[in-house]
Every structure is written in C-alpha cells, then in structure tokens.
Amino acid sequence: MAKKRANGEGNIRKRPDGRWEGRYTAGYDPQTGKRIIKNVLGKTQAEVKAKLAKALEDSKELDIVRTDEYTVSEWLRLWYELYAEPNVRPTTAASYRRNIELHVIPHIGDIKLNRLTSRELQKFYKDLLENGRLREAQKEKNPGLSNSTVRGIHMMLHNALDRAVRERLILRNPTEDCIIPKLEKKEMKILHPEDIKAYLASADLRGVLPMFYLELVSGVRK
Q1: Which of 14, 41, 88, 152 could form a disulfide with 92 if both were Cys (CB 3.0 to 4.6 A apart)?
Q2: Neighbours of 22 (CB within 10 A)
Q3: Are strands 10-14 and 35-42 parallel, antiparallel or unpaired?
C-alpha cells in the first residue's frame, strides 16, 4: 500500500506555459480518503516557493474539507438560522433577515465565502450609499441608504464572518479592513418657549399634564 503523503508536503514544477506551479496536500476527504490537492502559481520559482510555504501554513489553520463548501449567501442564511435569530431580539432578527435577502445576497451572495475580499465589501458599501434604496418613491428623494443603515449591515456581516473564522472556514474576517461610513450628526430640534407653553396648556386641559411634562423635560420615549 502506498504511503500517504503527509499534510504539508508539496512540490514545485515548471509548467509548459512557462509559469511555475506549487502543488500540496491540504488534507484528506473524510468520505473517500482521497487527498485534497491545492496549487499556487507564479512567474518565478522563488515566488511560488514563498506562496507554497504560506499556503501550507494556512492549510493548518483551516478546515480544508469545508472551506469551499459555502457561498456568501449560503453561509449568511445558515448563520442567521443557527446563531442570529435564536439569540437576538425579534426586531433585530427581522432587520438582519431583510438586509441579508434584499441587500447582501443580490450584490455579493454568489461569491465563494473563502474568496470574499475587503475590496468587494468596500465596493458593496459604496453601492449601498449611492443607490441602495429599493422603493422607487424613496429613490426619487434620496437613492442611497443612510450611513447608519450601511454601518448596521457592516456590523451584521462582521458578526457572521467572525463566526466563519471561528469555524475555520476562512483565515481572517475581511470586514476588518473596511472603512465604514461615519455616523451622521443631526441637529437637535427643540420647541420654542411659546410652543412649550401651548403644549403644556393643551396637556393640562386633557388631564395628562404630569405625563407630558415628564416627557418634555426628560426626553424619555415609550
């Protein structure tokens, strides 16, 4: 019986097209026992040697059998079902679901999870800021999503991809290198003194002055 090549072994050869190729054993398929062969390419032998060393090191940190298993859409739906929906408030879960299905999947859902880059995410955020609204009535007024909405989508993706790192599906979280929109500072609007007087007088006439006075001076919400 032929001896199995250990994980981490590799070899380098020059291809007929002039490029150099490094091939290595990244792991073994648990169903068939066959080797999982990966390769790296480069213009020079030295370049491929460096790439091969990095690939061999990376393969020790990943669950190689599963790294090609998911697209972004497949992973996000699984993450939502197993990790997000059971552990967040219903309103937050509904927001996640809406953003996944209406914004993320149409833009980057077909990309392999282990191929998703920070640059693709940055372009995605830019598209949302410039033309992310879906309702035609809203688009006429302002075609792009707000900074806070895009930041919320970014944080959701950060959490989902962090879980992928923990499950050894990807080496690092590509959201880490993204530049996200700054929070918009909105000018506070306050009532003029004459409006406050009319507001409290009206509340007093209806017998609800204490409640409305408290709301006015403290800013409490429902």
Answers
A1: 88
A2: 23
A3: unpaired
